[in-house]
Each structure stands twice: as C-alpha cells, then as structure tokens.
Amino acid sequence: MITAIVLIKTTVDRIPEIAEAIAALDGVSEVYSVTGTYDLVAMVRVRSHEDLAEVIPGHLNKVPGVQHTETHIAFRTYSQHDLEAAFALGLDE
C-alpha cells in the first residue's frame, strides 16, 4: 500500500464543497481542513504508483476550486499503536 499526503490550496470560499468532492474520490481515505499555508490535506492510499497518477493528477487536481497541490509520498508508517507496542516489549505490567 502506498500512502501519499497531498497538501491542497483551494478557492477559500468553497473549502467544504471541495473537501467533499475530494473525499468522494476512489483512493482518498481522509480529507482534513487545516490552518496554515494550505487549506486541505488529503490522505491517498493506493496499491501502485500508477494508481497515484490516476487519483492525484487524474482526478484530485481537476476538482473545481483546487488551485495547487503538493504531494508527499510516505516511506514508512509510525502509528501510536506501533510506538506503544515497541516501548512495551519486555515490560510486565
């Protein structure tokens, strides 16, 4: 599974509608409205790099109101669950 974090600048007065349209795309697991330089952050999870090309430039970038995107591909996932398990190794409670 490939995870991409997509930072999105949008037309500010249409953020909720744009977020909903992006969230409805296949491959998009979550969309967050955020503060800062970008308006939205989308989590894209797909099986292959070819699928990323289909989802991000093929569909997400074409949603009306999306002005700019910046994509970051994750190398490794560290979840809170994984960290707690790692620190609990060998410890009796």
Write the layout of secondary structure elements.
Elements: E1 2-10, H1 15-23, E2 28-33, E3 40-46, H2 49-55, E4 66-73, H3 80-88
Antiparallel strand pairs: 1-3, 1-4, 2-3
> What is the H/E order?
EHEEHEH
Secondary structure: number of strands: 4
**Rg, Å, rounded:** 16 Å
Query: Termini distance?
Result: 34 Å
Structural class: alpha+beta
CATH superfamily label: Lrp/AsnC effector binding domain/regulation of amino acid metabolism (RAM) domain
- Tell me the β content: 25-35%
Q: What is the fold named in CATH at topology level? A: Alpha-Beta Plaits
Mean pLDDT: 90
Low-confidence stretches: none
Helix fraction?
25-40%
CATH class: Alpha Beta
CATH architecture: 2-Layer Sandwich
User: Can you count the helices?
Assistant: 3
Q: Specify the oligomeric state.
A: single chain
General form: globular
- Give the count of structural domains: 1
User: How would a textbook summarize the main sheet?
Assistant: 4 strands, antiparallel
Tell me the strand order in the biggest sheet.
2-3-1-4
